[in-house]
What does this fold into?
Amino acid sequence: MKYSYIKPRKKTPFSTDLQLVLTFFMITIIMLFGTYAFLLFKDYRFVKNRQELEQSKVALAHNIKKMEDEIAYIKKQKAVANEIYTQNMVLKDSIANLFDLVPERITLSRADLLKNGLILYGITPNKDVYNFMLQAPLRSIFQETYTSFYPVQNGWLRFVSTNYINEDEAQTKDDSNED
Amino acid sequence: MKINISRHQIYILLLSLFLFLFVLAFSFGLLIPEGKEYRVKRIEMKKAEQEHDKYQNFNDKTEARLKDLQSKNRNIIAAYERAFDAERFKKEHKKDFTSLTLSKLKRTKDKKEFAVYEVNTTSHISSPKNFYNFLESLNKGDWIIGVNFPIKFVRDGEMINSSFTMKVYCNNKDNNSTASKSSAK
It folds into this structure.
């Protein structure tokens, strides 16, 4: 015997209300987990990037140090080269001055330019010419001047003039050049 | 007034309450602390980036300075790098001398990180002017060379015999590695 005209529908625990509640919470939980995963990923990337930046910074610092060393070395190269160029020019002027110093009446046969002195060998017509025209300017340059004369056949005198700058002064000049 | 709630609705209510508490616990327990940490790390990262940029800028400036210095002193750097070649030297300066003889190059005391080699020179010149020209051309030559005392001039008929010592300056590769690097760039 039938008590109803419709077919009995199946009863399920997932009612419409429950489905609605579950859908709402699922979306919320997915959003929360998504945000959390995003933050974790970003933190991981920050750590990685910071490590890379630190490594790059160390490499840059090393490179800067190397370049600074190179700059310092080139500056030294330049300074020493300029010092040598200047010395050569000073030497040129000194030799030119020396030859200008010798009067026409005196003939040099040899000149030894030393670090702290000058030795001249030559012929002079007489002592007076030598004393007035060569020894006087030599005395103004050198502190110690010694001259020896030897007569030659034609009546002229062969001379050897040894001239030295004070050792202390030469040493001071030398030290300043070395620095 | 009587509230009529079915058992099914009570289950839904309990489930909702449980899920709500879960969301709250997750948010306050994990998400918010992680968010704070993210913010701190982002600030630190910005600082690290700024510091890195400073280093990068300084590196670029130093590199530009080095390149400028290298290009301005190219000849001097190359001169220090070049090994002394006696034959080439003679060829370069033969116009100043009637004859030029060089002794074997020998190493002497180093000066300021540079290797110094000494070479004794004997030559014939027709006039002191040739020697002046030689000294001037040394400064424009392929090597860094200084003429040193003692210098001897001896009259030989119409010519002058001259003998002197030259010091050739080179990079000291034994204890200065930057020397070779600077020229390699």
Summary: Chain B has two domains: 1-72, 83-184. Chain B is about 55% helix and 25% strand. The first strand of chain B starts at residue 99 and ends at 102. Chain B touches chain A through 72 residues (CB under 8 Å).
